[in-house]
Amino acid sequence: MLVAFGESSIRSVEELADRATDDLDGWSERKNGKNIGHAASLNGVEISRKQYESIIISACIRAGWIKESA
């Protein structure tokens, strides 16, 4: 996973904390009646959206942006 982060220009905890789940996992949208898929920056890393969310929250805590709840 660290290699995938580096290849996606995520090289610090702050850069990871600044990402949205959709950035890492990809997303789709409906435009002009068609579904358009947007690639994830971590293509090939097989983890769930919940795991991505947890990784981002952990990075926010480590970066000092939010406090860990008791």
Number of helices, counting only DSSP H or I runs of 4 residues or more: 4
- Count of discrete structural domains: 1
Q: Within the largest sheet, what's the order of strands?
A: 1-2
Question: Describe the biggest sheet?
Answer: 2 strands, antiparallel
> What value does the average pLDDT take?
88
Radius of gyration: 14 Å
Account of the 3D structure:
This protein is of the alpha+beta class. It has one domain (2-62). Helices cover 43% and strands 14% of the residues. It has four helices and two strands; from the N terminus they run αααββα. The chain has helices spanning 2-7, 13-17, 21-25, 49-62, and strands at residues 27-31, 34-38. It has a two-stranded antiparallel sheet.
Secondary structure topology:
Elements lengths: L1 H6 L5 H5 L3 H5 L1 E5 L2 E5 L10 H14 L8
Brief overview:
With 70 residues, the protein is of the alpha+beta class. Helix content is 43%, strand content 14%.
Keywords:
alpha+beta; two-stranded antiparallel sheet; 43% helix
